[in-house]
Input
Amino acid sequence: MTTTTQRKKRKVHKAKLIEHLPTNDIHIHLEGADYLYELCGDTLKVMGEKVVREEVIFIPARLEKNRYIEHSYDCQACRKQDISSIKRAQAPKAPLQNSLASPSVIAWVMHQKYNLSLPLYRQEKEWQNYGLLVSRKTLANWLIRASEEWLQPIYERLRQYLIKEPVIHADETPYQILNRSDGKPSTSQARIWLFQAVQESQYPITYYHSSLTRSRENIIEVLSEEFEGYCHCDGYVAYQNIPGLTVVGCWEHMRRKFVDASGDKGQAAIGVAYCNQLFALERRFENLSTAERKWQREIQLKPILEEFWEWLEQLPVLAKSKLGQAVAYGRHLKEELMRVLEDGRLALSNNLAERKIRPLTIGRKNFLFSKSELGATTNAIVYSIMETAKANGLNPYSYLFRLLTDLPNLPFRQQPELIETYMPWAQGIQDFCK
Output
């Protein structure tokens, strides 16, 4: 007999959904002859009112232009003595010199491309509908220049925080780049890499890195020689034998191998059942402290793992069959898959990285490729900042707007410590960009 559980639907009252919106009260009154009562002809008086419905209205976006006019001032007394005393008020610096693009426009282009996955060729048409005739080439140029000049310092600071994390998750996905800077033809090896801090980290960071290859040099370039800690990954050999990096295997990948090998029947089904037991126990440990989680894993998880390995080692398989490939995968990564017992901060799977790389894969389906390496690097920078902003509870558009407004007017290159006040977890940013 099988039992099914139905998830209760959460009732969300309509009033709760729109309680934060500004309200326009529209009063409906009787007019003209309706004010007179038809039986006696006397004038009616108001006796009460009733709210009969609420509705949400949409106000389409519109463009305006700001014209900055600097005023000059002079000291009349000094002028009489032939002393130059002219002073001129200084307008705030624009994010892009000799450009029509304001911080709000650039931030909105980024929001639409990287948060809503709207390609630039479609944005081009939308800006035309607003009354601004701007080409997709110009939009791309805005993104590249703004990223290079103002977002790059934040991006590099995120990397510096990331390499100090004791536990991270990593993944990579193919990404097509049409034109290489060295003139060589593009290949299918181009990648976007993801490095992710754990959810419980003091500094939640989602960091993307663009490259032309899938080589281990990319991992070393991002993590440098300073990283010392655990790295969850899918078993890709490039992560192995990097000084300071301890690989943690992914049991979800192990489970998928058995599922691919007809996981609903035969020996493969036994492998799936073992993995399911592990995940069922892990869900029970979810709200425990890291120390208690490590202890419970030692007591409850370890016996199942030992039983699994004993079964796997004795399992006769054909090497080239899917089940044989699953068994080989497990045997090859036994040490990495057992590593989850070493620290309560570690996870049973690398699902966190797979979830965090999904925004990029969704975007890739829409804009397909980057025309240049510079464009791919821009994608990595903006995705990193927007996804990290979301991980820190910020509105990504508000955060980008703040960066593009303030940074052009700050001497942060001479005073790098100023960047700290613009990191996503800084109190001022938290107060402004929620």
Notes: The mean pLDDT is 90. The first helix runs from residue 14 to 17.
